[in-house]
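for the recovery benchmark. tokens below, seq after
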């Protein structure tokens, strides 16, 4: 019989709560303003591209659940040394992918679907490896769902097309990405 530990119980409760709190109002209380704003704009972008409100909500809810759970694991020092190395690698890949998305927005004819698709595949693999020891198969399927949605060729092409009707939203998202990147640079210093 394993020993009772309040910290373990607390962590399980936090993870359980994280799976219950996927609406945007609750997410705003747990996430900073830039992250909340980017999630709101991603929802609008997903809905605008797909025309499917229900699927767009599901993608963003899954994304919120994953972000919150990873944050809880990190806050509670649940990652071992190798996982922390992987988390740092994931963070660098996220930053590089974010900068690439920003450049796709700012520089005409720079969009490269295969590059962004591969970046998203790499990030999905890293994130899955990072959390597979800690989270359920249901959460792993949420990760799969989010990354599959965002690397869908029709979605990417619609977002990054030269005269995309989604350009204004993409501009807001890139502004938010810049804010997040600047904050992570400040945290690193």
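predicted aa per position
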């Amino acid at each position: 019989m394993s020993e009772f530990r309040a910290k373990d119980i607390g962590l399980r409760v936090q993870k359980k709560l994280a799976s219950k709190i996927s609406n945007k109002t609750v997410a705003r209380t747990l996430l900073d303003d830039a992250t909340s704003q980017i999630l709101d704009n991603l929802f609008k972008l997903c809905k605008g591209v797909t025309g499917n409100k229900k699927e767009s909500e599901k993608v963003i809810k899954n994304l919120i659940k994953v972000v919150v759970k990873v944050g809880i694991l990190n806050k509670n020092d649940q990652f071992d040394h190798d996982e922390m190395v992987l988390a740092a690698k994931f963070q660098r890949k996220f930053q590089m992918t974010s900068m690439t998305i920003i450049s796709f927005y700012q520089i005409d004819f720079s969009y490269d679907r295969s590059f962004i698709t591969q970046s998203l595949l790499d990030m999905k693999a890293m994130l899955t490896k990072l959390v597979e020891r800690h989270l359920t198969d249901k959460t792993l399927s949420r990760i799969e769902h989010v990354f599959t949605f965002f690397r869908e060729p029709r979605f990417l092409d619609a977002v990054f097309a030269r005269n995309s009707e989604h350009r204004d939203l993409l501009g807001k998202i890139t502004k938010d990405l810049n804010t997040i990147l600047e904050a992570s640079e400040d945290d690193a210093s």
